[in-house]
Design goal:
homodimer, alpha/beta, 7 helices, 37% helix, binds guanosine-5'-diphosphate, coiled coil (chains A, B), nucleotide-binding (chains A, B), GTP binding (chains A, B), Septin (chains A, B), GTP-binding (chains A, B)
Amino acid sequence: FCFNILCVGETGIGKSTMMDTLFNTNFDSTPSSHDLQDVKLKSHTYDLRESNVRMKLNCVDTVGFGDQINKEDSWKAIVEYIDTQFDAYLQEELKIKRSIHNYQDRRLHACLYFIAPTGHSLKAIDLVTMKKLDSKVNVIPVIAKADTITKTELHKFKTKIMQELVTNGIKIYQFPTDDETVAETNTAMNGVLPFAIVGSNDEVKIGNKMVKARQYPWGTVQVENENHCDFVKLREMIIRTNMEDLRETTHKRHYELYRRHKLEE
Amino acid sequence: FCFNILCVGETGIGKSTMMDTLFNTNFDSTPSSHDLQDVKLKSHTYDLRESNVRMKLNCVDTVGFGDQINKEDSWKAIVEYIDTQFDAYLQEELKIKRSIHNYQDRRLHACLYFIAPTGHSLKAIDLVTMKKLDSKVNVIPVIAKADTITKTELHKFKTKIMQELVTNGIKIYQFPTDDETVAETNTAMNGVLPFAIVGSNDEVKIGNKMVKARQYPWGTVQVENENHCDFVKLREMIIRTNMEDLRETTHKRHYELYRRHKLEE
Ligand SMILES: Nc1nc2c(ncn2[C@@H]2O[C@H](COP(=O)(O)OP(=O)(O)O)[C@@H](O)[C@H]2O)c(=O)[nH]1
Ligand SMILES: Nc1nc2c(ncn2[C@@H]2O[C@H](COP(=O)(O)OP(=O)(O)O)[C@@H](O)[C@H]2O)c(=O)[nH]1
């Protein structure tokens, strides 16, 4: 099966490192420059094995997002990409002789929105973009480079972000709490949002194990240490516990909404 | 005497914390929000004692810089402010009955340009802004929140930044090397630019001393530890070694250039 994930965030915020960290890959992508004239969506496809399931992972990166001096249209390229995938699926669905089960579904199942760790609040571009995306894709905001923020600052920052999302009517993806087997974990996880994450392509020896970490002169941030950041929670929630729900809500909610508007035109 | 310093950088990049850290103050400024419609320059004045010299410190903050979705005019308010101070001085200088020695000189002696620690390169707004400012004020770029960057990443980042400044013909302030007593130190310091800085309003007990630091679960970044960041070098260079040169170049170079253009009009 396939899983399509979109990463939105400014250049240098850690998107490609986070994809490598989440999916244990080494995408070897050339770092993007800051001087792109507009936003381009670049997609990389990988064949992965995640807990013995073969998966086609499709990572879409927003190259140049937020870099322009005038960011007014930053979100347009993203919405266009999402709609294009919805439309391609719709065209296939409407055919008489369909091959839906063979169809390479490129609809985006999750959008990781990378929030810059300013410690203050969301930026204007974050609010505008997430508002445009929340009815088109499952938006999962994350605080990027969380090793920039102390525990006390993080608590205030998370509270501020959640308040701003509510104030601006932005509907972020909530882990489902209707299924008894996952209700308790998912409810707890919803209370920790947005996840504060750290990514790393480097491994460091801690004790007798090699772990993903960022090594500083004053200490080593261990990506998979839950006392250091929420990376493990993010991985658990989107790759293990809720991947099916992400794919389902994409089809039954976001795609349905697109289809209804498109067919009513 | 007075020292006027301008801090340019996006909201949440650590400007007010750095002013407190550099000048041992507790400016108690209310954190700025991200949703200002345009850039405003806000100035705070303090009476300080720096190594037994009484100094009037004037800190000018660029509130709202880089926050707008359209950042085209971000630099205009800054250039206008600088020119206004030059013009006020010029008007005083041209008077018949002058009181130059009583005059409250608000001309900016240094501009600390805060570079976001992306680890990649400068942003479009950085290049445009520094280019507009380099002939108007002594521009001293610094890498903000340097505790986000590992030693290896920092080395590459500094090299990239310096290359981009040269490529774009941006003239940053160089510590003077004509005076024998400071030539060696200043030359060495010019080779370390841009300074990678960390600021903190909090103190942590290290050994038996209270030191300015940022405490994380994986370790404590000590602001005044030269192995952790370049803060001590920045303070030494601008407050101790070169404050006089900063004030002098402002008057003899930047102001002179303004005066000549203004009188030629
Ligand atoms: N402090 C910190 N730096 C990170 C983290 N993840 C990546 N970086 C660094 O940030 C820089 C940009 O990362 P990259 O993944 O290329 O960002 P992208 O442009 O968003 O894809 C690199 O120097 C990374 O090593 C993180 O979690 N914390
Ligand atoms: N990681 C890190 N965070 C910092 C540093 N300096 C300030 N901060 C934090 O960044 C946030 C914004 O700082 P502030 O000084 O208000 O930024 P300003 O809006 O540019 O004035 C606060 O949560 C600070 O504690 C630093 O050197 N490193």
